[in-house]
Amino acid sequence: MEARLFVGGQWVEGGARIEVRNKYSGEVIGTIPEARREDVQAAVEAAQHGAAVMAELPAHRRGEVLRRAAELIRDRREEFARTIAAEAGKALKFARIEVDRAVSTFTVASEEAKRVHGETVPMDAVPAGEGYFGFWVRRPVGVVAAITPFNFPLNLVAHKVAPALAAGNAVVLKPASTTPLTAVMLCQVLAEAGLPAGALNLVVGPGGTVGEWLVTDPRVAKVSFTGSPPVGRRITEIAGIKKVTLELGNTSPVVVAPDVDLDFVARRCAVGAYYNSGQVCISVQRIYATREAYEPFLDRFVQASQAMVVGDPLDERVDVGPMIDEREARRIEAWVEEALAGGARVLTGHRRERAVYWPTVLADVKPEMKVVAQEAFAPVASVIRSDDFEQALEQANATEYGLQAAVFTRDVDRVFRAIRRLNFGGVIINDTPAYRADHMPYGGVRGSGIGREGVRYAIEEMTNIQMVVIRTGS
Fold first, then answer.
1. What is the CATH architecture of 253-429?
2. Which residue, 286, 43, 262, is CA-closest to 144?
3. Dihedral through CA 69, CA 12, CA 175, CA 270, nearest 10?
4. Tens-digit pLDDT profile for residues 18-72
5. Can you list the residues of the chain whose pLDDT is less than 50?
6. Could you tell me the fold of the domain covering 5-249+446-470?
7. Cβ burial, residue 138 (10 Å; 0-12/13-18/19+)
8. Going along 124-242, which residue ranges are E strands?
9. What are phi and psi of 149, to 5 degrees?
10. Fewest beta carbons within 10 Å, which of 61, 274, 288, 437?
11. Catalytic site residue 368?
């Protein structure tokens, strides 16, 4: 695919072309121009015009465009899935699930577009309010900068673009430079669905240039970013006075009580740890099994990990494809080597071929090791013995992050203890922290970010409350 930037409803050229490669074979599958500063400025200007149009577009029309977009994505399901598998290295079976989720995200957004409303305020609840009538409404913020990562090149884009459009905003989208082709296809879909010119604009390039030009532009009213904590901190430093949503990752813990079906838990944890090569913000990373459950769970989890099929993501049989590039595979290889030097044991995996890193299970890790303390973002999971359920909760909480955590237990008392004790944006009971439904509120606390996604909740983040007060007496 010889792609171009999308600005003001037109496909335009930019600077030098960026090569997009199949992450398994290394073959060039497309190119796209890197945005220059003037391209970013033109995109923001086009978005300003698009925002004015979108703000006046009736809710039912916004809903129709988003519903039509969902239908067009469904019609091109296989094309989208194969593009995701090639440019992101995601196994085709999971790429298809991502496409289905994007259809759901746009469908929910089409419905939520019709539910952006306010409420009355009982002004006479205080003496100063006597003789006044009050209500508030939600107004779109205007121009939204959406900066998205490589790991979900369609659905994480959908989670920013769909609610922004549903609320009546315009968007300047900067996808990851390693996976821009899926975003190009989405722009095609939305244009075909009848989206007004300028309502969605696409620029591509490094975060240090293109990303920072977007974030610091005073015409941008809202930044929605998913990515690494260092970049998130940088955005908060340079954005200025504007709304910011940050989704910055996790060291996702799982607590396993002794009263569960360990075969089921092991299989779910293997999928949660290794799909998309572990390159998921809520990928299973730290598993705390109580003393009674530890040995039998560890045996089952190793078996489930070894059952994952590794190879070309376009092969229907494959579960685990390559990481996004060889540099990342070398990084996690070095992290595991460091853990081994500190006394950890590898029970399976720790094998690398170019960008492919095999599903890896570690035991005897220490809390300060990188594979435990930092986000691995790789197909590596550590199984850790806990004396009891209370200690497992303490160990799960012992992190600077707080996106999602999971607990497997049949004991309702343990369930409510976990809910009270775990300081995370989401607590998943009897499934892994990798679980997400696309309409639920999703986001973290502590170092995992600011704000919430999930269509309705993202709309709230992408609108401002306007209070209206009417004096009714003379």
1. 3-Layer(aba) Sandwich (3.40)
2. 43
3. 60
4. 999 999 999 999 999 999 999 999 999 999 999 999 999 999 999 999 999 999 9
5. none
6. Aldehyde Dehydrogenase; Chain A, domain 1 (3.40.605)
7. middle
8. 132-140, 143-147, 170-174, 200-202, 222-226
9. -90, 180
10. 437
11. no
Let me know if 247 is a catalytic residue.
yes
Question: In this structure, what token pair is assigned to residue 19?
Answer: 């090569």
> Which residue in the list 45, 247, 375, 453 is annotated as catalytic?
247
As given in the structure block, the two tokens for residue 365 are 């890790």
Give me the residue label for tokens 């489930």.
304
pLDDT tens digits, residue range 326-374? 999 999 999 999 999 999 999 999 999 999 999 999 999 999 999 999 9
Using CA atoms, how far apart are residues 218 and 26, in angstroms rounded to an integer? 39
Task: State both tokens at 259.
Answer: 């009263």
The active-site residue, picked from 112, 187, 281, 453, is 281
Amino acid identity for residue 312 in this structure? D
The values of phi and psi at residue 26, to 5°, are 85, 0
Q: Which residue has the tokens 């494959």?
A: 318
Give helix 155-166 / helix 59-75 axis angle, nearest 10°. Answer: 160
Report helix angle 92-112 to 77-88, nearest 10: 120
